[in-house]
Amino acid sequence: MEDLIKFFADPKFGGYTLQKTLLYSILFLIVAYVVFKILKKFKFRFEVEFFTSILPLVFLTSTIRVLEDYSIISGNIFVTPQLQLTFLPLFLSTIILMKIFLKEKWDKAIFIFGLFLLSFSLTFVPLKNFHAFLYHFSAIISLLTITVKLPTSPENKILIFSIMFECLITLINVQVFGFFEQHFITRSILEFSPILYPVVRILFLVFLIKTADIYFKEKSTNNYIKFLFSILSLGIGFRNLLQSIAS
């Protein structure tokens, strides 16, 4: 029983298996639903400005995770998903308080606050692999150029860029710099055929956008779902990016 509890409570114990992936996915959906209800109660509008304002906080959690990877800080609290579950209430409380006291200026305030924390945390990341930086920078600029020109909504562009951003960073890390992919689903696809991985990602993107647009017509809910998966992908992608240039 002790090993079973440790298996699910400690992501590093036994690796990211199918059982853990399913458990974390269910937990992710439950938490996402609760957060959606809370934010709706405080009359948040899920628009591009909302997404942009919280982006530094998303990157902050990724940076903290990398600091744990390189033993600059230590403890299971800094490992996914404990890290997100620990920081989410703090971030959520801060955002709500700023919305209450600063009214319509809350988004600018939370962006500046998050950017300050992110900038501070990045100073502890050992950035030393210049080749990785060049590879990733070129890939990001190319992806951004293509995404901006797509004939679709800003919310869809954010989602497309985010998911393909994670995809490209992972491909470069594994295929060029020899990183080991921890999540077994992604690892299995890459081992079978690296070309298949972006194809699967694109198919998932089409499925996600079509599903959201068909079954969630209400704009606020539709945007929230797209931002949710964008945040998840950007967080993972940014962590992988920092890992490679810090190696």
> What percentage of amino acids are in beta strands?
under 5%
**SSE ordering:** HHHHHHHHHH
Poorly predicted tracts of residues = none
Q: What percent of residues adopt helix (DSSP H or I)? A: over 70%
N- and C-termini, Cα separation: 37 Å
Secondary structural class: mainly alpha
Overall mean pLDDT: 89
Figure out the total of helices: 10
Number of domains: 2
The global form is globular
The beta-strand count equals: 0
Main sheet record: none
- Determine Rg (CA atoms, Å): 18 Å
Brief characterization of the structure:
The protein has 247 residues and is mainly α. The chain is built from ten helices and no strands. It has two domains: 1-126, no CATH class; 127-247.
Attribute tags:
247 residues, mainly alpha, 2 domains, 10 helices
Walk me through this protein's architecture:
α3 runs parallel beside α10 (219-245), α6 packs antiparallel against α7 (154-176) and α7 (154-176) packs antiparallel against α9 (196-215). The chain has two domains: 1-126, no CATH class; 127-247. The mean pLDDT is 89. It is 77% helix and 0% strand. The protein has helices at 2-9, 18-41, 48-69, 82-102, 106-122, 130-148, 154-176, 184-192, 196-215, 219-245. It has 247 residues and is mostly helical. The chain has ten helices and no strands.
Task: Furnish the topology, listing elements before pairings.
Blueprint: H1 2-9, H2 18-41, H3 48-69, H4 82-102, H5 106-122, H6 130-148, H7 154-176, H8 184-192, H9 196-215, H10 219-245
